[in-house]
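Supplementary Text 2. Reproducibility record for the structural model of the 212-residue chain.

All settings were left at their defaults, and a single model was retained for analysis rather than an ensemble. We include the record here because the model underlies the residue-level annotations in Supplementary Table 4.
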Amino acid sequence: MAIPVMRTSSWIKVRNSPIHGRGVFAAKRIPKGTRVIEYLGDRISHAEADQRYEDHNPNDNHTFLFIVDKKVVIDAGVGGNAARFINHSCDGNCESVIEDRRVFIETTRVVQKGEELGYDYEIGREKDDPPNVDEIFACRCGSPKCRGTMLWPAKDPRKKKAVAKKKATPVKSTKGKPTKGKATKGKPSKSKSGKSKSTKGKSRAGAGRSRR
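Retained model, structure tokens:
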């Protein structure tokens, strides 16, 4: 039996958020495990999403795109509902659940009346991310468990690789023999140009918010 479309919900209200822009708040006490609302919008392919937002400012972290799978993206900026206003939280009270290629937002604990709803966007990192990507996608959820970024993994793996490579770089000693140690001083390290592709989020195998 098909699941009815959950375009609206009596559980929630949309109003200004102290975290960012508009947010979604509990209109009444919501029990744990409640399916609150469905994430709706224009269902398009990754290629169409790329084309639609090819001029998207790479320094803008605002997104209403949600990756369902490798073929489908939901653009809540077109025909979307209140679910698109649920903000990111590193320690959210909700989670996104996919069922029959549809996305639903469910509570992971009891949410008290007036409390803002949030879930972890887990926006995937890209190999060509600009150096300031963590600043662009900085998190301001205010949770004690806040990792400081909406991106996942929390730490940029490129930095770890760079450190490991630096430690393993052989340098000449005073005797002329290569030894492992610190790299020679004064040599600038190469970095990416900071250009951002329009295919952000496409490489993620699983579902989650995209940042085209």
